[in-house]
From TrEMBL, chain A:
It comes from Amphibalanus amphitrite. GO terms for biological process: mRNA processing. Residues 350-359 have a biased composition (Acidic residues). It is found in: Nucleus. Residues 311-367, 1094-1148 are annotated as: Disordered. Residues 868-1011 form the Symplekin C-terminal domain. The keyword Nucleus applies. This is Symplekin. Residues 103-320 form the Symplekin/Pta1 N-terminal domain. InterPro entries: ARM-like (IPR011989), ARM-type_fold (IPR016024), Symplekin/Pta1 (IPR021850), Symplekin/Pta1_N (IPR032460), Symplekin_C (IPR022075). Residues 1104-1115, 1123-1133 have a biased composition (Basic residues). Keywords: mRNA processing, Nucleus. GO terms for cellular component: mRNA cleavage and polyadenylation specificity factor complex. Residues 319-330 have a biased composition (Basic and acidic residues).
From TrEMBL, chain B:
It comes from the Eukaryota. GO terms for biological process: mRNA processing. The lineage of its organism: Eukaryota, Metazoa, Ecdysozoa, Arthropoda, Crustacea. Its main location: nucleus. GO terms for molecular function: protein serine/threonine phosphatase activity. GO terms for cellular component: nucleus. PANTHER family: RNA POLYMERASE II SUBUNIT A C-TERMINAL DOMAIN PHOSPHATASE. Coiled coil: none annotated. This is RNA polymerase II subunit A C-terminal domain phosphatase SSU72. Its EC number is 3.1.3.16. The gene is ssu72_1.
Length: 1148, 209
């Protein structure tokens, strides 16, 4: 009863204290309350532990770090008191270990885990059977252990210190106690049965050695802090004292530390560390197991400044040393006998009492266990080997050399460390001192990985590691086989166990569950099946679409648009179609919907949207945009959509590249190109930021085959070219690129496919005029704006085929003229003309010749240096009239082809432009030709030249010739070739006959005074003219009248050669009225009619004719010398035709 | 003579745990350096205790070779009376009685560190020899729960003037240590700062309970 009362009392007290603590705001009191509870429960009534554990542990979520630490203290104590508590608190420990707010809590947790780990292993070892709970707790502790060990690299100095202490605990716990170790009442591996499945002693020991190696590594790390270093040093010494097998490793670690103190330590820290090390070494020295290393320890101690008496005091009693010495000399088997019996029993618990069997088994076990110790010995050996090696070589000579060499590396002032620690060497030069120096050198060399010792151990080391591996394999096997079974068990056979493992939740968290948890919709909802989802979406969309009017009436129109837009961002293709149809039904009315849709889609694509998943891809937006514009473009009632289309392009958040392509296609349709190009223009001005993306499309349009589109696009391109420098370069690049296509042998496929009328496959494409021009349009348009481009042309020109060259030359005129003579680029081009482009240059010069500068230069050249008239040809049009006329005689003497070119030039033949201006009009040219001095040029050449003129019927039309004849006629003296020209003109244009007759008449009358000469010169020609005229046409009234006005002598001659004319004339004259006859000179009348003017005409009988013929000779004889008569008859047989006449005349 | 005082633990509103600081002095020290530091500590409100580390409590006597020796466990009251009886004027003159009078009001009698089972965060000694003794003590112990303790030595000469200066130095150091959020992490730096400021060599080491 009394006990019950006490129990109840304690319980009530605890409840009261805990309730109070929960309400307290004062942390100090809270901690005090918790401590009281701990005291009450642990020490007065442990039975209550189970009841109150959760309540106390619940304080672990307190905001105050002190409270949390108090909870940790409670947990630790609870576990110590009752091992069954371990599984309940492991999860809590894990949580506390992650405490991110207070390092102090983490440190305290590490401390607590260290103890609990130990306790748990003990518990496991002592338990009759291992339950699942234990297993889980152990594995969780294992995780935490690994984490803590990794904390040795933690940022916080204190945490590192605690981690080191934890490692020390692990090493001590997971190794076997040894003979001569410090007697500690602690649990260690000795107490762990071999049969413990979840914690195999071998595995544990192996782990301990790894952890020890980690510690050694940490101890030797160069930037370790002094606190860590001293903690680590202390831990290592402790381990060495408790587990003498580690002593060698520890001492060599201390040696290497002494030789290489971390450079980061300050002067006083160095002092502290050295002092600490000295103390540790003295402690080691006291330990009997350190006998083997006594020499090393003593040396180190002397270095650290320990006095002989100190060392001597620390030395263990001589008897003990002797005993130990004796023991090491005995065979290991005998040594085993000295070990406590318990140990062997632990190794081979299944052993019989039979000693014969026991010894080998024990040896095997200890052999395997001691293997790492051997390894460590080897490490020791490395220094030892190097030491002896160095000692052999340390002669005074070498020492002096070493000092001299290292002199260079000495700092100017002795470092603090040195001045602090240096003690004058008392025993310099003695054998022991040499040995000591050798040892120091060896330690340094080994650390640097040099010297024979390292090499020797390296070889052995490899063997050792191989051996280790085998051992590990050996050990792995059972562990490995255990693990799969465990997994299989937990995974398949017993779901119960798996549940248990999961069930290790932190204690004291129950009340947390009642806290309001934020509602997460995604957690409590489940996604709809796909078809159902789509069905609902379709239905929803249908309803929304149908609700247009109600929405408008109800004032929810914008809300509806927003809804639709939001929904449409997640549409399937069918729904999209529906939406599209809806929009297209009323383009204007639903434009707002279109835009909110587009913007929603855009927001989704760039991740601005709050709704739905972020797509981060513009594919959807692009698709919808393109769909909309294509739908608008193909609509028959396009007019309605035009505005929307423009708005779409200008107001959409972004015009995707594919939309630009569509627009390009739209623009290249002759039916719609105007709107398309207009859109392009608006895009260019309205979205200047994106100009660069429209330019390529536009450029393609500007180089297309269809002229109207091309011209319009070219305009836009040229505007662009002016507006921005970057775009200008873009445009120019494109132009030059296309220009370069010309240099290829055949038109590139790209060019051909650009064209609508693509050449079918297999047909070899050839450069046509059209294709070549396609390449040139843009370039030529740019040329006047960017004159430097002309050089590109010159280079390309060299490469082109003859056909293309011709095309180029032909189209070059306008742009070159646009550039003008003053263009420095053009002048540079003329100067630096590439080989093969001479024709191009010539052409350029030709085009520009009316510009004075160039002409002046050429004229200069011609007049002063090279009087080759050919130079003048290019600049012909730039010369003035008199110059051309002066040069004419020379010009026409050139090769007929050249002469033709000269004439073309002068006459403006092949000149494409209308502003052709020649110094000479066609009339002037022909007149000039007639006026060439026969002395300068022979008549034949002149005749050829004139006939060239006559060949240009387009220039020398009837009217022109008439003017020419008129002008020639008025000259005095008459040009030699006049009559020839008259006849030729007449041959070309019959209708000139009237004029010719007129001229002849006037000539006839004018030349009365000098008839003789005239007759001599013109007689034959006139006659020929007559002949020709009569042959070409029926004798006209005018012709005969002309004849009538001729002087009588020539007429007579005519009649001699063409008697039938006389009959015609006679008929004509007979038809004259009396007054008309009076105009006719009497002798002419008589000659024609054969009678006096007063006589009546007689019938034309043969007798008369005969008479008349008879009467003629005397007059002929009188007027005409015989010689001439003869000559004439010979030259002009009556049969001579009109066609022959000119040709014969040339001979004249 | 050794005078060891305990002050009341001040209530602290600070969330951080108050640090337990002790100063240790050698038993033979005539003028308690630790004690000097003591009242200053007390006023500054951190928990301070002072201890001796020697075998006996030794106080100067009438001649250098005739010290007054007491066992630990003797009260200040007893020593005070004893000395009063022996030579009142001498011990009043050298201040010993005054000191003992003060001490007896603080705690009953001298304490020996080795016999104290409390755990501290920081132990400060005023002489290297004491420091060595403290380390030796810790080394000889078996660490149980691995709670770290920082042992610091600041050499203070055994005279009134130095003791006064030393008291302030120790107080200064303690204040800094107290203010540190994370002692383990900061102590290296704090000590180095202190060294350069006080121009005194400091020995420092970490040990574990």
């Amino acid at each position: 009863m009394a006990a019950m009362e006490v129990g109840n009392d304690v319980q009530e007290q605890c409840v009261e204290l805990l309730n109070e603590a929960a309400l307290l705001t004062d942390d100090v009191k809270k901690v005090a309350n918790l401590k009281k509870v701990q005291e009450l429960i642990i020490h007065q009534d442990p039975a209550l532990l189970d009841n109150f554990l959760d309540e106390v542990v619940a304080f672990q979520s307190d905001t105050n770090a002190e409270v949390r630490r108090a909870v940790l203290g409670f947990i630790e104590e609870a576990c110590r008191k009752d091992h069954e508590m371990v599984p309940k608190v492991v999860a809590n420990l894990s949580l506390l270990l992650q405490d991110s707010f207070s390092v102090a809590v983490v440190k305290r947790t590490i401390q607590a885990i260290g103890n609990i780990y130990k306790i748990t292993l003990q518990w496991l070892s002592q338990a009759r059977s291992v339950t699942d709970l234990m297993d889980s707790a152990w594995s969780m502790l294992g995780q935490m252990k690994r984490q803590i060990i990794s904390y040795v690299d933690h940022d916080n100095d204190g945490v590192r210190t605690m981690a080191v202490k934890f490692m020390e605990m692990v090493v001590l716990l997971q190794t076997y106690s040894e003979p001569g170790s410090l007697k500690r009442q602690e649990f260690c591996l000795d107490g762990v049965p071999m049969t413990l499945k979840i914690a195999r002693p071998r595995k544990l020991e192996e782990e301990a050695r790894t952890v020890f190696a980690e510690m050694i590594k940490f101890h030797g790390s160069p930037h370790i802090s002094s606190v860590n270093l001293m903690a680590c040093m202390g831990s290592l010494t402790l381990i060495a004292r408790c587990r003498p097998s580690f002593i060698g490793q520890v001492i060599s670690a201390l040696e290497s530390l002494h030789a290489n103190l971390p450079p980061t330590l300050s002067k006083s820290q160095v002092n502290s560390v050295r002092k600490h090390m000295k103390m540790q070494l003295l402690n080691l020295l006291k330990h009997p197991a350190s006998y083997d290393s006594h020499r090393n320890i003593c040396t180190l101690l002397t270095d650290l400044g320990a006095s002989q008496s100190e060392v001597a005091r620390a030395m263990p009693p001589v008897e003990e040393l002797r005993k130990r010495q004796r023991r090491t000399e005995e065979p290991p088997g005998a040594a085993d006998d000295d070990t406590p019996g318990t140990k062997r029993q632990k190794f081979v618990p299944e052993d019989d009492d039979d000693d014969d069997e026991e010894v080998p088994a024990g040896r095997v076990a200890s052999g395997a266990r001691l293997a790492p110790v051997d390894k460590m010995k080897h490490k020791l050996n490395a220094i030892d080997i190097t030491e002896t090696w160095a000692a052999e070589r340390l002669t005074p000579q070498l020492a002096a050399d070493l000092v001299l060499v290292s002199m260079q590396h000495l700092p100017d002032a002795p470092p603090a460390l040195f001045s602090n620690t240096f003690t004058p060497i008392s025993a310099a030069g003695t054998r022991s001192q040499i040995q000591h120096v050798a040892r120091l050198l060896a330690a340094q060399l080994t650390k640097a990985g040099l010297g024979p010792g390292v090499e020797a151990t390296r070889n052995q080391g490899i063997q050792m590691t191989d051996h280790d591996w085998e051992m590990e394999d050996e050990e792995e096997a059972p562990a490995g086989s255990r693990r799969p079974i465990a997994t299989v068990l937990s995974g398949t056979v017993t779901g119960r166990e798996a549940k248990k493992k999961v069930a290790l939740l932190p204690s004291g968290q129950m009340h947390k569950k009642h806290m309001a948890k934020p509602l997460r919709l995604t957690e409590i909802t489940r996604p709809l099946p796909k078809d159902e989802l789509e069905k609902s979406m379709t239905a929803a969309l249908d309803r929304l679409l149908a609700a247009e009017k109600p929405a408008r009436v109800g004032g929810l129109f914008s809300v509806r648009a927003k809804l639709l837009a939001m929904m449409s961002a997640h549409f399937t293709p069918q729904l999209l179609d529906k939406m599209l149809v809806h929009i297209l039904e009323d383009m204007r009315g639903r434009a707002d919907l279109v835009f909110s849709w587009l913007y929603e889609e855009y927001c989704n694509s760039v991740g601005f949207s709050n709704f739905g998943q972020v797509m981060r891809s513009t594919a959807n937006y692009e698709q919808i945009f393109c769909m909309l514009i294509s739908a608008l473009m193909v609509r028959p009632d396009f007019k309605d959509g035009e505005i929307l289309l423009t708005r779409l392009f200008l107001e959409a958040p972004v015009v995707p590249a594919s939309a630009v392509d569509i627009l390009k296609g739209f623009s290249s349709d002759p039916a719609t190109y105007q709107l398309g190009l207009q859109l392009f223009g608006q895009l260019l001005s309205g979205r200047p930021g994106r100009q660069a993306s429209y330019v390529p499309a536009l450029l393609q349009l500007a180089t297309g085959a269809a002229q109207e589109i091309r011209d319009r696009a070219l305009e836009l391109v040229l505007q662009l070219h002016q507006s921005s420098a970057t775009l200008a370069t873009l445009v120019e690049q494109h132009a030059v690129e296309r220009l370069k296509w010309l240099g290829e042998e055949t038109p590139p496929a790209q060019l051909v496919t650009d064209q609508q009328s693509a050449v079918p496959e297999g047909v070899t494409r050839e450069w046509t005029d059209e294709l070549a021009k396609l390449c040139l349009h843009l370039y030529l348009a740019l040329l006047p704006r960017r004159e430097s481009l002309i050089h590109q042309l010159a280079h390309v020109y060299v490469l082109t085929t003859a056909d293309v060259k011709r095309t180029i030359l032909r189209v070059l005129e306008a742009p070159i003229r646009g550039m003008g003579m003053e263009s420095p680029e053009l002048l540079t081009l003329v100067e630096t003309c590439p080989k093969g482009a001479e024709t191009l240059i010539t052409r350029v010069i030709h085009i520009l010749t009316d510009k004075m500068e160039l002409v002046d230069r050429v004229r200069d050249l011609y007049q002063k240096r090279v009087s080759d008239v050919r130079f003048l040809i290019p600049v012909l049009n730039g010369l003035n009239k008199s110059e051309v006329i002066a040069a004419l005689p020379k010009l026409i003497r050139l090769n007929p082809v050249v002469v033709k070119e000269v004439f073309n030039r002068l006459l403006g033949i092949h000149a494409d432009t209308g502003n052709f201006s020649s110094p000479l009009t066609p009339v002037e040219l022909l007149v000039a030709l007639h006026n060439i001095d026969p002395a300068k040029c022979d008549m034949k050449t002149i005749i050829k030249a004139t006939s060239l003129c006559f060949a240009e019927k387009q220039v020398y039309t009837q009217e022109v010739l008439a003017v020419v004849l008129q002008q020639l006629m008025e000259q005095d003296p008459l040009p030699v070739l006049l009559m020839r020209t008259v006849i030729q003109s007449l041959a070309l244009y019959n209708r000139l006959i009237g004029l010719v007759m007129n001229i002849l008449t006037r000539l006839a009358s004018r030349q009365v005074g000098e008839r003789r000469e005239v007759r001599r010169v013109f007689g034959p020609r006139r006659r020929s003219g007559r002949v020709s005229s009569s042959a070409a046409s029926a004798p006209s009234r005018a012709a005969t009248r002309c004849c009538c006005s001729c002087p009588v002598d020539p007429l007579r001659e005519v009649f001699d050669t063409a008697p039938e004319l006389r009959a015609q004339l006679r008929d004509y004259v007979n038809g004259f009225t009396a007054s008309q006859r009076e105009h006719l000179p009497a002798d002419v009348f008589e000659l024609i009619t054969g009678r006096k003017p007063g006589e009546e005409p007689v019938s034309d009988c043969s007798g008369c004719r005969r008479r008349r013929r008879r009467s003629r000779p005397p007059s002929r004889r009188r007027d005409c010398p015989r010689a001439r008569n003869r000559k004439r008859s010979k030259r002009h047989p009556p049969s001579s035709g009109a066609a022959d006449a000119p040709m014969k005349a040339i001979d004249y | 003579m050794r005078s060891h005082t305990t002050s009341d633990r001040p209530a602290r509103s600070d969330e951080r745990r108050p640090r337990d600081v002790i100063t240790v002095q050698l038993s033979r020290v005539v003028q308690s350096r630790a004690l000097r530091a003591h009242p200053v500590h007390g006023k500054k409100s951190f928990t301070v205790q002072s201890f001796g580390t020697g075998d006996k409590v030794k106080l100067p006597g009438s001649a250098p070779n005739k010290p007054n020796i007491y066992d630990f466990g003797t009260t200040y009251e007893h020593i005070y009376r004893d000395l009063q009886e022996k030579d009142r004027s001498l011990y009043t003159q050298n201040g010993l009685l005054h000191m003992l009078d003060r001490n007896r009001r603080i705690k009953p009698g001298p304490q020996r560190l080795q016999e104290c089972s409390d755990k501290f965060d920081v132990v400060i000694s005023c002489e290297e020899r004491v420091y060595d003794q403290i380390l030796e003590m810790f080394e000889s112990r078996e660490p149980v729960d691995n709670t770290p303790v920082h042992v610091i030595n600041i050499d203070i000469q055994d005279n009134h003037e130095e003791a006064t200066i030393g008291a302030f130095l120790i107080c200064d150091l303690c204040t800094q240590l107290e203010d540190s959020q994370d002692l383990e992490d900061d102590i290296d730096e704090l000590l180095q700062e202190f060294e350069s400021k006080a121009k005194r060599q400091v020995l420092h080491c970490v040990q574990f309970y």
